[in-house]
Amino acid sequence: QSVLTQPPSVSGAPGQRVTISCTGSRSNIGAGYDVHWYQLLPGTAPKLLIYNNNNRPSGVPDRFSGSKSGTSASLAITGLQAEDEGDYFCQSYDSRLSGSLYVFGTGTKVTVL
Amino acid sequence: QITLKESGPTLVKPTQTLTLTCTFSGFSLTTRGVGVAWIRQPPGKALEWLALIYGDDHKVYRPSLESRLTFIKDTSKNQVVLTMTNMDPVDTGTYFCAHRQSDNDAFDVWDQGTMVTVSS
Fold first, then answer.
1. Is residue A1 very low, low, confident or very high in pLDDT (cuts 50, 70, 90)?
2. How far is it, in rounded angstroms, from Cα B76 to Cα B69?
């Protein structure tokens, strides 16, 4: 049902760099709509990590960075830490003949080895 | 500081109507562009956007669910209320309310969510 595709899982050792891709289409990311990224940790409210493709809200470490190109976007986590283990979702906007809506990615589970 | 807190039932029966209330503070839902959204996550699945109400009272709904959703706001109480009719077991999941910033489509503050189970 999700129109944005992410890898189901990525993993890395502490200190390593991992990237999460978010692949869309011409009706969402490719149409120029911005991409945002969220972190979901068990028992806590979802947290906005990146907005408008590559901007960090106040308080988000600079270990998190985002980029966008064409119909895809990516989230990079450098200096991976144990506390980064959780689920990550991308989000954009989709405009189509059947109706416009906010769309989320399929989600990626990050595991710190 | 923006906060949102959701309240509502944790168990509803099939065909019943779900009513969720989101009480917020730290912003005004009369400001143009500011909004409150409802988003859900079925167990083990992806997030799914349901509805958004803007400060000017404009409402947008997920097209596939629009016939079942109603979203109202009470600015005097700083609350928004979402109702979803004809609940089905596939509607089981965690329901979140979230603040939409005025100048972009990101949801910058979320509540912790309420797990709603649809079962007889």
1. low
2. 22
Considering only CB atoms, A46 lies closest to which of B63, B96, B105, namely B96
- Name the residue of chain A whose CA is nearest to B40's CA: A104
CA distance A65 to A39: 13
Does residue A70 carry a pLDDT above 90? yes
- Chain A environment of B46 (Cβ under 8 Å): 1-2, 89, 104-107
What is residue A33's three-state secondary structure? coil
Under an 8 A CB cutoff, do B63 and A1 touch? Answer: no
Query: Scanning every residue of chain B, which has its alpha carbon at the shortest distance from the alpha carbon of A34?
Result: B105
d(CA A61, CA A78): 10
What pairing do the DSSP bridges indicate for beta strands B35-41 and B18-25? unpaired
Position A97 confidence tier, pLDDT thresholds 50, 70, 90: confident
pLDDT tens figures, B45-85: 999 999 999 988 899 999 999 999 999 999 899 999 999 99
